[in-house]
Amino acid sequence: MEPTKAQQEANNDKLRDKSVGAIEQSNTASDELDIDAILAGDKPAFEQLVIQESPRLFRVIVRILNDDDEAQSILQETFLQAYQRIHTFRRESKLTTWLYAIGINLARATLRKSRRLSSLEDQDVERLQPSFSRGMFVDSPVEWDPGRMADLSDRKRIVRKAIEKLAPDYKAIVILRDMEEYSTEEVAKMLGISSGAVRVRLHRARQALRELLNPHFKKEAART
Amino acid sequence: MKIVTLIKTMLGLAPNCEKVNQFLGDYMDGSLPENLRTQFEEHIAMCKCCKPYMEQYQRTIEWTHDCRCNELPEELVEHTISFLRKNADYPQS
Fold first, then answer.
1. What are the extents of the domains in chain B?
2. For residue B79, which residues of chain A lie inside 8 Å, CB to CB?
3. Mind listing the pLDDT tens digit for each residue in A112-158?
4. Cα–Cα nearest to A192, from A104, A63, A90
5. Cβ distance of A16 and B21 shorter than 8 Å
6. pTM attached to this predicted model
C-alpha cells in the first residue's frame, strides 16, 4: 500500500532528526580541511572535503532540483569537476564557496536542459510584488490565521511547495540565504552576481513567497 | 497612522509605505542605516498595512529556514567517494 502524505512526512522527519547529528558533526570539522593538500591533488584531503561538504551541498542541490536521484548524480559530478579543476581555484573566495558555485551551476544547467523549469517565470515574481498607489498599499494585507499557522507539518508542506514554484534564480537565492544562511557576499560569489543583486532578488523572492503563502494562511473574511 | 507621522509622510519628511517596503529586506538583515531604521520603525509602529505585512514577511523567512531539508540518502558520502575513485584521475599515492 502506498504511504499517505502524513506517513511520508513522518518518515522524512525521522530521517531529518537522524541526519542532523551527522551534519553538526561535519560542521565542527570545518577547520580541519587542509586546503594546501587539496590544491596539491592529495586524495585523502579531497575526500575529507567530500565528507564535510556533501550533506550541506546535497541539501542545496536537492532543493533546486527537487529530485533526490538527480541531486545525487549532480553532487558526484560537482566533486568530480572540482577535483579536475582544482588548479583553477585562485583563493579569491573560500574553497567551499567555489565548490558550491560549481554545484549550483550544474544544477541550474540540468533544470534548463530538462526544461523542467519552475512554474513561475521572472515576470510572475514581478506580479507577486505588492502594489502601491501614491506610496500607499493598494490592498491592505489581511491578517494570518494563528490556527492555520500553528499546524507544523501542513505548514512545511505549503512552504516547500511555494519555494518549489519560484523562478530558478530566485529559488537559489532563497535556499542559500534564508535556508542555509550564507552571507550575502558568499551567495553573490556562488552565483556570480553582485551583492546588490542578491539583496534585491532576495527581497523580491521573499515577497513573492509571502504572496504565495497568503491564500493558505489568511483569516477568512467575517461572514455577515 | 498617527496624524503627525501621516503629515510628515505627506510632506515627504518621512518614508511612505512603498519606501518602507523597499527598506524591509535590509531592515531584516540588520543592514539598514541607523537614521533610516528609526524612520522605518516609527512608520511600522503606526501603519495598519505595513505592520502586518512586515510580520508576514518575517514569518516567511522563518518558515523558509524551517524547511531546510536534512534528509540524506544513507550512503551518499560513500557513493560519492567510490564514484570519485572510479572516475577522477587521482594521482597514484
1. 3-87
2. 72, 76
3. 777 665 567 778 888 999 999 989 999 999 999 988 888 888 999 99
4. A104
5. no
6. 0.81
